[in-house]
């Protein structure tokens, strides 16, 4: 719907009214197939600009083909990019998981260096009432 840098939206008309829709995260609208697709598969989309990531130069594999490589997102441990033919594709590990560059797969966030965020549970220290405070409380029996 717009420019090559923002290709994740499209318009659809119903009853004479236009509606704007978003493709799922990391996908772009393909005007040729009328579906959401990998941005590198959409001719009118600049995948690098749209996703905000450029694949580093790749070494050739043993058969002369470029290998698929994965890179953790610099902005979010939960997301990572797979480089296919030197073009990025955004993937998501899911809640509580992070991309582990050592094992090259999604893992528990606590197992990935720099990705274990603050605990969702707040530590509460017990408090002790002194004698004067306890005397103000009466028990009903």
Automatic annotation (TrEMBL):
Question: What superkingdom does the record give?
Answer: Eukaryota
| A UniProt-annotated Pfam family | CBM_14
SMART domains, sorted: ChtBD2 (SM00494)
Print the keywords alphabetically: Chitin-binding, Disulfide bond, Glycoprotein, Repeat, Signal
Taxonomic source organism? Brassicogethes aeneus
Q: Does the keyword Thylakoid apply?
A: no
What are the GO MF terms of this UniProt record? chitin binding
Q: Which stretches make up the Chitin-binding type-2 domain?
A: 1-47, 52-117
Fetch the PROSITE patterns from UniProt: CHIT_BIND_II (PS50940)
What is the name of this protein? Chitin-binding type-2 domain-containing protein
UniProt entry tagged with the keyword Cell cycle: no
**Cellular component GO terms, alphabetical:** extracellular region
């Amino acid at each position: 719907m717009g420019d090559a840098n923002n290709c994740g939206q499209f318009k659809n008309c119903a009853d004479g009214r236009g509606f704007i829709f978003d493709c799922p995260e990391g996908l772009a609208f393909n005007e040729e197939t009328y579906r959401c697709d990998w941005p590198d598969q959409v001719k009118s989309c600049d995948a690098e600009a749209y996703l905000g990531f450029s694949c580093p130069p790749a070494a050739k594999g043993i058969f002369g083909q470029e290998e698929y490589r994965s890179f953790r997102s610099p902005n979010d441990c939960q997301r990572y990019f797979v480089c296919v033919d030197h073009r990025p594709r955004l993937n998501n590990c899911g809640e509580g998981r992070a991309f582990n560059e050592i094992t090259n797969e999604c893992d528990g966030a606590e197992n990935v260096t720099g990705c274990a965020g603050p605990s969702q549970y707040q530590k509460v220290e017990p408090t002790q009432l002194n004698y004067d405070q306890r005397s103000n409380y009466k028990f009903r029996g």
